[in-house]
Specification:
Oligomer: single chain
Shape: elongated
Radius of gyration: 29 Å
Number of helices: 6
Structural class: alpha+beta
Order of helices and strands: HEEEEHEHEEEEEEEEHEEHEEEEH
Length: 338
């Protein structure tokens, strides 16, 4: 490297330092490394995250010994949502300090609408870091944040990712939850039954014996003797992953309560080898508005989706595409003549 090149680099560095100095002096901004240190370097050590907002919503995320996460001590957390939050905790960095002129307004906004974030490491009783997440800036290029005990807030972002940070801190419990209804390998199924209240001649049950094989019976408890075992194995394999589409968020609780008074199209109940039973009751989903099919006939119900009532507690949206292969006639298990 020749002398002129070295001199040029020195000049650029000096000018950069000078520019930063005059910028911060002019804007009245302050920059304190301790007050701007929001990131968690080792997210593998994070064992608990607590979020609380001014709407009295709380989210408690806890890492289990299996490595999976639970939300509010009840439900397993979706991996993609958890990874996004952990990545945010690790990669959040300063976009700009807040000027002294804007400092008071930003702090007031955080105090009135801020989200509290507590991050715990290695099962410790006290949080490793606590901070408050405020609103986005006017360009939605970052979010204002304030460390607990600090005097100065900062505009924070993630390098290389345009946008503010608030959507990464999810405060709606269902958005954390996995949309899995059944996730059972055939050997994990102790008993399975499907009933059709209006077509009971199609109903059947499948029970795993102590020997590990399966017995199929019709709705009258009569065993299917000419069993197509290849078809049975293929059918049971479908229960390794049965998902619902989404939680029902468009109807009020009173409307959803009326589902329990209606006759379901079908009921699926699965008891696993740990004696945990999951049931799904399916109901037709009315459509809003006037719709007709290709022949001009009126359509009263959604042709693609239904309501699913899980364990008589939660209403979700399920798809015919997913459940049609499961809701078959008991006759399908009988060996076909060659």
């Amino acid at each position: 490297m020749n002398r002129s090149t070295v001199l040029g680099i020195i000049v650029i560095v000096v000018l950069g330092v000078a520019a930063a100095y005059f910028y911060f002096q002019k804007s009245g901004s302050t920059f304190d490394k301790d007050e701007s240190n929001f990131a968690i370097e080792d997210t593998a050590a994070v064992t608990k995250i607590y979020l609380a907002d001014k709407k009295d919503r709380e989210i408690l995320l806890e890492r289990q010994t299996t490595g999976k996460w639970k939300v509010n001590k009840a439900y397993e957390v979706r991996k993609d949502v958890m990874n996004t939050l952990l990545s945010t905790l690790k990669n959040v960095t300063v976009k700009a300090p807040v000027s002294k002129n804007a400092r008071e307004k930003v702090i007031k906004n955080i105090a009135s609408d801020g989200l509290k974030v507590e991050v715990y490491l290695n099962d410790e009783a006290t949080p490793q870091k606590t901070y408050y997440l405020g609103t986005a800036d006017q360009f939605h290029s970052g979010s204002f944040m304030l460390l607990e005990g600090a005097e100065n807030p900062y505009l924070m972002h993630i390098e290389g990712a345009y946008g503010y940070l608030n959507p990464r801190y999810v405060m709606h419990e269902p958005d954390y939850r996995k949309n899995v209804i059944f996730a059972h390998s055939p050997e994990a199924i102790k008993q399975l039954f499907i009933s059709y209240p209006e077509y009971e001649n199609k109903a059947f049950s499948i029970t795993q014996t102590d020997r590990g094989d399966f017995v199929v019976k019709n709705g009258n408890e009569v065993q299917v003797l000419d069993l197509d075992t290849a078809f049975l194995n293929s059918y049971l394999a479908q229960y390794k992953m049965v998902n619902f589409e989404s939680f029902e968020k468009t109807k009020d609780p009173q409307y959803l309560d009326t589902l329990t008074t209606k006759t379901p199209d079908f009921i699926i109940g699965l008891t696993d080898t740990n004696k945990i039973t999951t049931t799904v009751k399916a109901f037709k989903k009315p459509v809003d508005g006037d719709f007709t099919n290709l022949f001009g006939d009126s359509i009263d119900y959604d042709m693609d989706r239904m309501y699913g009532l899980i364990n008589n507690e939660e209403v979700v949206i399920i798809q015919y595409y997913v459940f049609d292969p499961l809701t078959i006639d008991v006759k399908e298990f009988m060996s076909k003549p060659e």
